[in-house]
C-alpha cells in the first residue's frame, strides 16, 4: 500500500512538471515568434528605405550592408574613389536617418 502512494505522488509530480514544461515552452515559442516578426519587419523596413535612396546609393548600400563588400571592392564595382565611397555612405546614412526619424514620429513604443 505504501509503495502505491509513493508512485502516485511521483506520477503527480511528473505530470505537474510535464504541464509546467509545456507551458514554459509555449511561452518561450511565443516570445521567439514575436521577436522574429519584429526583426523581419525591421529588415523589410530597412530594405524599403534603402531602395528609395537616390542615384546608385541603393546598390552601394546593399553591397556594403548585406553583401559585406569592402570599400575597395565597392570603389572598383562603381568606378569611384575610396573617398567617394565614404561620402556616398555618409549621404545614404543621412537619408536613412530621415526615414527612421519620420517613422519614430508615428511609432508607439511598447516595452
Uncertain spans:
none
Query: What's the quaternary structure here?
Result: single chain
Largest sheet: none
Instruction: Please indicate the count of domains.
Output: 2
The overall pLDDT average reads 90
The end-to-end distance, rounded to whole angstroms, is: 54 Å
Given helix and strand content, the structural type is mainly alpha
Output the helix-strand order: HHHH
Helicity level: over 70%
The Cα radius of gyration reads: 26 Å
Number of helices: 4
Sheet-strand content, in percent, reads under 5%
Number of strands: 0
Gross geometry: elongated
Description:
- The chain is an all-alpha fold.
- The protein has helices spanning 2-51, 57-65, 71-78, 82-105.
- The protein has 2 domains: 1-42; 52-111.
- Helix 2 packs across helix 4.
- 7% of the residues are buried.
- The model has no long low-confidence stretch (mean pLDDT 90).
What secondary-structure arrangement, pairings included, does this model have?
Layout: H1 2-51, H2 57-65, H3 71-78, H4 82-105
List keywords for this structure.
about 110 residues; mainly alpha; 2 domains; 4 helices; about 80% helix; elongated
Short description:
The protein is mainly alpha-helical.
Amino acid at each position: 500500500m505504501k509503495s502505491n502512494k509513493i508512485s502516485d505522488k511521483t506520477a503527480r509530480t511528473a505530470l505537474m512538471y510535464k504541464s509546467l514544461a509545456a507551458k514554459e515552452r509555449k511561452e518561450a515559442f511565443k516570445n521567439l515568434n514575436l521577436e522574429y516578426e519584429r526583426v523581419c519587419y525591421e529588415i523589410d523596413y530597412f530594405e524599403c528605405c534603402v531602395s528609395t535612396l537616390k542615384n546608385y546609393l541603393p546598390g552601394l548600400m546593399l553591397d556594403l550592408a548585406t553583401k559585406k563588400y569592402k570599400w575597395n571592392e565597392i570603389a572598383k564595382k562603381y568606378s569611384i574613389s575610396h573617398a567617394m565611397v565614404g561620402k556616398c555612405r555618409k549621404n545614404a546614412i543621412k537619408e536613412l536617418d530621415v526615414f527612421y526619424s519620420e517613422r519614430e514620429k508615428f511609432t508607439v513604443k511598447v516595452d
